[in-house]
Each structure stands twice: as structure tokens, then as C-alpha cells.
Design a protein that fits this description.
Blueprint (H helix, E strand, L loop, with lengths): L1 H34 L1 E6 L8 E2 L5 E2 L1 H13 L2 E6 L5 H6 L5 E2 L7 H6 L1 E10 L1 E7 L19 E5 L3 H6 L6 E5 L2 H9 L5 E5 H10 L3 E7 L6 E8 L4 H17 L1 H10 L5
Parallel strand pairs: 1-4, 1-5, 8-9, 8-10
Antiparallel strand pairs: 2-3, 5-12, 6-12, 7-10, 7-11
Helix pairs in contact: 2-8
Length: 267
């Protein structure tokens, strides 16, 4: 009886060990696959950071930045197009590794996630975009409330969307993406579009009909450029991204991309 028991115990243990090896190899393979992929979240439709060209291909400054980072880290780039206001939640939930989405660095965002600066200096103003002409009597954002059409379009989840709320007399309409905001102005549904200065500069190159009016920001409201978002639980990735951006700056690659997308007349 003891011999019979020992015989089957050996068989049972052998099977368990074999199964353990199979499962271990499976999970190691899965982990390796995950490590080989870098997933970034962005909201397409926000030129020149990310938008679709005439062939429907996703292009832009952030796309190129993502490709450079993935190349430096030896990873395959995966891009997820998502709502801007859901990007931070997706980052926290581990659905994406990075946010590279023309996201401004603000104190409130830095409380939630790491942000690595990758473009732009501190901005001291926003821009009101008008189509063809600035209405008579409008010299500041406060003057918008005097107009019969006092609606201003803004991008969902952006700094301008938050900023416009301080003027309850001004109606606001929120859209996914800068182009939708601009179209609303072009066809007279909104009188103006409030955007970041960099975006206004880019759009004005593409559409000479645009006229702009600067909206000064106080020192406390100034925007510290644009940043790459990283989960605060991923200190290692934060360090790698910080080092990669510094490398791209040192080699001049970052400046080349900046010149390509913000200083060239890209259609």
C-alpha cells in the first residue's frame, strides 16, 4: 500500500511541476510581450499635436514624439485615440503607459500624475480666435458678453474650458478637438474660439482668415508648457521618459520635430 501511494505521489508531483513550468512560461511570455509595447493615449483632432491627414492617417508632433520615445526604449508603439478628459483615468487604471496629448502642465494635474515637460515655455496668455474680423468694440474677453452672439467654443478638458467658466455671462460650447471648435466659429455658431497660444499660431498659418486677440493670464494662472503624463506608481518609467526627453533635446531631435510641426506651413 505504501509503495502504491509513493508511486502515485511521485506521478502527481511530476504533473504539478510540469503544470507549474507551463504557467510560469505563459506569464513570463505575457510579461515580456507587455514590456515590449508602449501604449500612449491621446485625443486626435488637436493639430499640430495630433490629427488625421487627408488620407486618414494619424499624424502630428505627439505622434512623432511617441515614435521617438518607443524607438529609444526599444518598444513597439501602440496609440489609443480617446476622450481628452478620460486620459488621466485611463493612465491611473493602467490602460495606457503615457499621455502624449498636447496636455498642459498645471498644478492640479501634477498632483495626480507625473508630467515630463517636452514642448513649449510657460505661457502667459490664451488666444481668442475670430473668423475674418474681430467684432467692433471687442478689445478683451470681457467685451464678448456685450455681443448678441456671446458664445465661445472651447476644447473638452482643456485649460480654456476651465478658464471661460469664470465669465458666467459668456456662453461656452465644448468640442472634442480644436478643428471642431474652429468650424463652429467659421459658420457663425460661436463668435470666437478660446485656445492655447501655440494652437492659435498653428491654426492661423493654415487659415489666414483667422484673427486673434490675446487673453492675458495672471502669474498664478500661467501654463508651464506641455507635458507627458505618467502614472505616479511607475517611478521607473518616469525616470526613463525624463532621460529620453533630455537625450532628444541634447541630440537636437526634439528641436527638429518642434520646427517641423510648429514653424513650418504643414497642411
Amino acid at each position: 500500500m505504501a509503495s502504491w501511494f509513493k508511486k502515485y505521489l511521485v506521478v502527481f508531483m511530476t504533473v504539478l511541476i510540469a503544470m507549474g513550468i507551463v504557467f510560469m512560461n505563459f506569464f513570463q511570455s505575457t510579461d515580456k510581450s507587455d514590456r515590449e509595447v508602449l501604449t500612449i493615449g491621446l485625443q486626435c483632432g488637436y493639430p499640430p499635436f495630433e490629427y488625421r491627414d487627408e488620407n486618414g492617417k494619424m499624424v502630428g508632433f505627439d505622434i512623432d514624439i511617441g515614435e521617438k520615445i518607443a524607438e529609444k526604449l526599444g518598444k513597439k508603439l501602440v496609440i489609443k485615440d480617446m476622450d481628452f478628459d478620460g486620459e488621466i483615468l485611463s493612465l491611473k487604471q493602467g490602460k495606457i503607459d503615457l499621455i502624449i496629448s498636447g496636455m498642459n502642465i498645471t498644478p492640479s494635474r501634477e498632483k495626480e500624475i507625473f508630467m515630463v515637460p517636452y514642448h513649449g515655455d510657460a505661457a502667459t496668455s490664451l488666444s481668442l480666435i475670430f473668423w475674418e474680423k474681430i467684432p467692433d468694440g471687442v478689445e478683451s474677453i470681457e467685451d464678448i458678453k456685450k455681443l448678441s452672439n456671446s458664445t465661445v467654443s472651447v476644447g473638452i478638458g482643456t485649460i480654456p474650458e476651465t478658464y471661460i467658466k469664470r465669465y458666467p455671462e459668456i456662453q461656452s460650447k465644448s468640442f472634442e478637438g480644436a478643428l471642431a471648435c474652429l468650424i463652429d466659429v467659421k459658420y457663425g455658431k460661436s463668435v470666437a474660439n478660446l485656445v492655447e497660444a501655440d494652437v492659435a499660431e498653428y491654426l492661423q498659418k493654415q487659415h489666414p482668415e483667422i484673427k486673434t486677440l490675446q487673453v492675458p493670464l495672471s502669474k498664478d494662472e500661467s501654463i508651464a508648457g506641455f507635458g507627458i503624463g505618467i502614472n505616479k506608481n511607475n517611478q521607473i518609467l518616469f525616470q526613463k521618459i525624463s532621460e529620453t526627453i533630455q537625450e532628444l533635446k541634447a541630440t537636437g531631435e526634439l528641436k527638429q520635430l518642434d520646427d517641423k510641426w510648429f514653424k513650418s506651413d504643414i497642411q
